[in-house]
Specification:
Order of helices and strands: HHHEHHEH
Largest sheet: 2 strands, parallel
Distance between the termini: 31 Å
Strand order of the largest sheet: 1-2
Shape: flat
Oligomer: single chain
Number of helices: 6
Radius of gyration: 17 Å
Number of strands: 2
Number of domains: 2
Helix content: 55-70%
Length: 141
């Protein structure tokens, strides 16, 4: 993922003023902290810190937050066999990792939107609501 991410973010395109991505390299560290043992995580963190300083950072992080119950409902609806055994505690730990990370980002460079009660599939107005929040944030900064 590191190589793919650096390749994608280093390509300059004269016709695009911005890039949108659903992945940031820091996501790997969040998941590693939850899934690896203490020693493995310490080693991963050292390697990560070395690589992370070379990576272009986003101008804006957008975190679409859903509570754990809603995440579990979405997992069940999606029906992917390999996701069905994901535990609520695991999702809560991942969310905690994102929240801790976002606290390190200046407020002008982060936007957290609670989408727990939104339905992008069946209600277009919910999708537009997220876009409005994004635009409002960009205008205010």
């Amino acid at each position: 993922r590191y190589q793919q991410f650096t390749d994608d973010t280093q390509q300059f395109d004269l016709f695009k003023k911005f890039m949108v991505s659903d992945y940031d390299i820091f996501k790997s560290l969040i998941f590693a902290k939850v899934t690896l043992g203490t020693e493995e995580y310490a080693l991963y963190r050292k390697l990560f810190n070395y690589m992370y300083k070379e990576v272009k950072k986003p101008d804006l992080y957008v975190y679409l937050h859903q509570d754990t119950q809603r995440l579990l409902e979405n997992i069940r609806k999606r029906g992917r066999d390999y996701e069905q055994q994901i535990a609520a505690q695991y999702l809560e730990e991942i969310n905690k990792g994102y929240v801790e990370f976002l606290k390190t980002i200046p407020e002008s460079n982060r936007l957290v939107i609670d989408v727990t009660n939104l339905d992008f599939v069946d209600r277009r107005t919910d999708y537009e609501r997220v876009l409005d929040s994004l635009m409002d944030h960009m205008i205010s900064c």
